[in-house]
Amino acid sequence: xxxxxxxxxxxxxxxxxxxxxxxxxxxxxxxxxxxxxxxxxxxxxxxxxxxxxxxxxxxxxxxxxxxxxxxxxxxxxxxxxxxxxxxxxxxxxxxxxxxxxxxxxxxxxxxxxxxxxxxxxxxxxxxxxxxxxxxxxxxxxxxxxxxxxxxxxxxxxxxxxxxxxxxxxxxxxxxxxxxxxxxxxxxx
Length: 188
Description:
Structural class: alpha+beta
Order of helices and strands: HEEEEEEEEEE
Number of strands: 10
Strand order of the largest sheet: 5-6-7-8
Number of domains: 2
Helix content: 10-25%
Largest sheet: 4 strands, antiparallel
CATH topology of the largest domain: Rieske Iron-sulfur Protein
Distance between the termini: 86 Å
Shape: elongated
CATH superfamily of the largest domain: Rieske [2Fe-2S] iron-sulphur domain
Radius of gyration: 25 Å
Oligomer: single chain
Strand content: 15-25%
């Protein structure tokens, strides 16, 4: 028996459909079992602790306040820039907070230039970040924005409420760490 080109293509298509079905059907059973049999995917809600960071009245323009959040060792800075900035809160929309760990290799950045609203350069590879533009990398090896600490002002107290973007070296900002407790004083 001679296999024609047409027979070869039909046999190949049938074999591909069988193999594809053998892979996709078990995946469908797994999804429906994991999420209550509905076949829908479930969303996970991140619940961050609420932690007091500082007194708004004590914050001076251009002088950063350093604190750990959402767990010990996750260093951040809180700063009033003196002019409205992207994602800024407060009466003048000039209060922001970001992780001070470089998004390139996680080195701690401790130099803040208030005249430019720039955190950096990183002591490892000289990356710098513009805090007036959502922590965007402006120079160096880093290619990602800094994680932004979500803030809330309640009366005169400034609270950290969550973190937008992953903290360097973590695949979950809330997993396996000693989280700060609600209302805990954070070094203000």
